[in-house]
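Dissemination and training. As part of the outreach component of the grant, students in the summer workshop were shown how a complex can be specified as a set of sequence lines and then modelled as a single object. The example used during the hands-on session is reproduced here so that future cohorts can follow it. Participants entered these lines:
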Amino acid sequence: MPKEEMIAMLLAGGKGTRLGVLTKNIAKPAVPFGAEYRLIDFPLSNCTNSGINTVGVLTQYKPLVLNSYIGSGSSWDLDRHNGGVTVLPPYVKEGGGSWYKGTADAIYQNIEFIDIHDPEYVLVLSGDHIYKMDYAEMLNYHKEKNSDITIAVLEVPWEETHRFGIMNTNENQKIIEFQEKPENAKNNLASMGIYIFSWEYLKKYLKAEAEAEANNDSAGDFGHNIIPKMMADKLNFYAYTFKGYWKDVGTIKSYWQAHMDLLGENPKLDLQDRNWIIYSVNPNRPPQYLSEAAEVNNSMINKGTQIMGTVKNSVLFFGVKVARDAVVEDSVVLPNTRISSGAKIKNSIVGRNVIIEKDVKVGFENDNIETDEIEITVIGDDEVIPESSNIKTGMVVG
Amino acid sequence: MTPVYKKGGANMNNVMAIINNALDESFLDKLTGHRSLASVPFGARYRLIDFPLSNMVNSGITNVGLLLQTKYRSLMDHIGFGKAWDLDRKRNGLFILPPAHIYQANRAYKGDLQNFASNIDYIKRSTQEYVIIGSPNVVANIDYRDAFKYHIENKNDITIIYRELDVFRRDTTYTVMNTDDNDRIIDMKVDPKKNYYKKISMQRYIMKKDLLLDIIDDCISKGEWDFVKNAIIGNLKNLKVYGYPFRSYAAVINSINGYYKSNLELLKPNVWQDLFLKNGPIYTKPKDEAPTAYKNGVKAKNILAANGCSIKGDVKNSVLFRGVKVHPGAVVKNSVIMQKSEIGPNAYLENVILDKGVQITADKSLKGDTNLPMIIAKNTLV
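and obtained this result:
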């Protein structure tokens, strides 16, 4: 196969523990997002929009839905003669096999795959972040700076620096220090978990790390093992500052907040931008129907929905039905869920194929009066909420 | 697509289909100024061709030929290799059958049988024993398996799917037919001034492929060139031609007003349920539009909308295609707004059809009549 400039390795094996019932049956990158998409659509679409035609998707936790979703990759124009998208689960080798024991280990176990494509550079991505980014620009930057490792970073508020991996840079954007979730950060540039490595170096360090006696044939994590070693050896690290919208939807609250960010007059994340299309496996559904009685305001609604009631400040996935006199407010409703008449839902995430029977209330009464913060109520997939029940604020059903 | 499972449904492996696009489309005026009837947008996110094509695929047919006539660029763009219908196959799949007579010196077009004749090799070479011939001008969601089963069991030579109508649109002409008590077709008339019979042809014909080849040869040898009038009506007496009743929603598109009313008719829940949810989904070319955004202050009632719209104004009783923008203060009533059209602030539209990419600037007011909608041609700036 012809040598490629850069291929992407997408880490998609995460369980997403903090998303609770939303990842009960699926890997985190397969979690639905934005009325139409799944999380993995964002990095995959960014790849195709950036001209990256070879993407390895590293899967491990509950991969069935994710595998069939990715399919041949044609949804993202990644069904190619050379390259395209390849799903890479752990496999058995001559000396036995093992699960991916870390982010770097996942790449290490697929050195053969990368060598087939023989790239100059390897882009490492995570499958659970929401953003639109041109990786080609990042690569240009990597080359301009004569960098060995380029890490995409984002300016975060100083008071939140303790939640991130912080890059301390000099005036040239060269990274001189790396602080993992620091108490006292020296900078406010947080790593976005997006790396460009020169393959030659990365391969060398992965092998060295795995071959070290103590590591038991595992290359470990980028953050804990590889990056610190490269740092110690004084390789050239540069920070590439990203200015756009970026969200780690790792928690229920941030998942809900990211959906609210799609709404408003000028949404923080504009999905309707035709210059940077987010592709997905288009579910084939009829157009959306709003009845004479429908009241819709400040909402994002996908095809195949039937709205007879009131929908405010909400995001509705395909196939959702909102009956007459039902009210959905400040909520996210996942595919094929039915909300019966008289039901009222506020500040909630409602899972797939849920049936909310008549006059149910979700997210209204709050036992915890102390807090001013919005608490999100969650209903897991395939639940049936019986008539007139009252699901209190902050509860998780399923 | 795997065919939609139907218990006891006939096996369609032995059936091919031909969609006849050699139809007169001039009645749609500006809407067909640059496109064939088959690629006329319909129902917020579809083109007319999507209905027969999806029905065939859902019934289990995997070999479909498209007979083309004129202005087929937009149709080809829409269909591509047939991927959206899962018809990009190694064996069988979608076949584009261009008109050959345009290469002849005198270029005289005699009739649609000429299109069949130009592509006779495709029909001959197809391995299936039976053929269903359909047209894009009747919109319905039909499962062909029942009709095919009837065709075989009743040992018909030709089976025509029909629908019995109680109410006829004054603005639409129909191919009407009369049957005896056993549903044998004894008379059939194409677009008569007076509607003699209550049964209208759905323009779906089932027969053996060899019979089709014989009929084509026979008609052409006598100088007859019209598929329905010659090949079908001409054989009512000497062949066993039976009707098969279809009882769900059907729209016949052969006038501007009929087209307009059929679009708005989709706002009735029983109509869109019949058309979109029964007998399997209707497939169309995906566009990867984001979901539709309803902004603050929007009033949207009784509408069908595709994805990618951004609505800030007041929209009522209307059908919006993909990527339509309605600015604040704009009012849209009883209208059909096609892909990527934009309606400026405080504009007023009533009984209007906007073709693709029309821009209505601020404060403009356009009003058609309920029975004669105003049509604005593609990419017009008003």
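The CA atoms of residues 350 and 379 of chain A lie 5 Å apart. Students were then asked to discuss how this feature might be tested experimentally.
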